Amino acid sequence: MKNSRRSFLKISGLSALSLSSLSIGNVLASSAGVTNTSPIGDASVKPEALQAKKWAMVVDVKKLAENKRYEACIEICHKIHNVPNMPNKRHEVKWIWEDEFKHVFPGQEHEHIPDEFKEIPFLVLCNHCENPSCVQACPTKATFKRDDGIVLMDFHRCIGCRFCMAACPYGSRSFNFFDPRPFIEEVNPEFPTRMKGVVEKCNFCAERLAKGQQPACVEVSEGALIFGDLGDHESEVSQILKKRFAIRRKPNLGSGPQIYYLV
Amino acid sequence: MQKNKMYDKEKVLAGLTIFVIIVTFPFWYNMGKAAPAPEIKLSDKAKAAKVCVAPKSFMTAEHMQILDVWRESVVRNKKRLYSSLDGKNYNMSLSTGEDSCIGCHVSKADFCDRCHTYASVRPYCWDCHIEPKENK
User: Which of A2, A4, A42 to mutate to probe the B interface, most B CBs <10 Å?
Assistant: First the structure.
């Protein structure tokens, strides 16, 4: 019993040493022998996907007013993307909607605007800006700009801080104050819904472009919406903008909106 | 030898015994009651396909890893086509299409949930991704 403290220290020192050398040995062995080949395969872009340098949309305002397809555009978009129809306007969620000239182009209205422009609805959606303020505001990079110009949301990263909503000059973003599921009439199983507490907006139909399809609103617009690559001078959108005068929303902000309205 | 005398031997020993019993209580209380490992049912579709998108041992332990890689690839890098190491192509998706995870493992209840309930994990993916309609 006299030497008990000394022998206790000796034994515990020895066991600590042997334990640590064991684990060091393990680490050495595993880093020496094993090569790091991942069993995960490769990812690539599907061959049928539509690709561009800079996606943009042209809205033929008069044509749309004539063929009255705006409701069809809104309906198809909200249906395929499971956008809920909230009963309370303050909780509204929208990806594409209609508004009047004085709201869409504030500062450009005056008394002598032709009546037709005062009355017809304008289709508005995310402008997929060249210089998007929402992307700069997002603290988690949940909103980002793809190399083809689409300003996209990664819902997996959205923490619902709503800085992007404050930053967007076009009101293109909506917040899910509630679980949207009960407010979706018929859920489209081909696209995930969102959940309470995330922001959402138009994605320029990224999931359709990946399958080689045009955006849904363009498809049902009967020619009033034209979608294409502004990085390609031969594309239909480039050709139209060369020939006809188009205006953009709040261009003086420098955000570089990519939705062009033919007037 | 006076030094080695233990004072209040009975009380100390009784106290020690009670202490040991209390500390080990959870172990012997649960003895023999361990829940059996869950039995997962492979769907007929998965049986027909024979292989998963990566080797089984990897999938069992690291499937959340591959899901993370997939969503990053699809949402952020535009790449939606997956080729496994054994040369098969899949549409990279958790919940949509025939060759998504749920398109092949068609019953979430008999497959994913069996393990997850056992392991007490509740992936929040299904708040947004649409669960298959189970044909119970």
Answer: A42
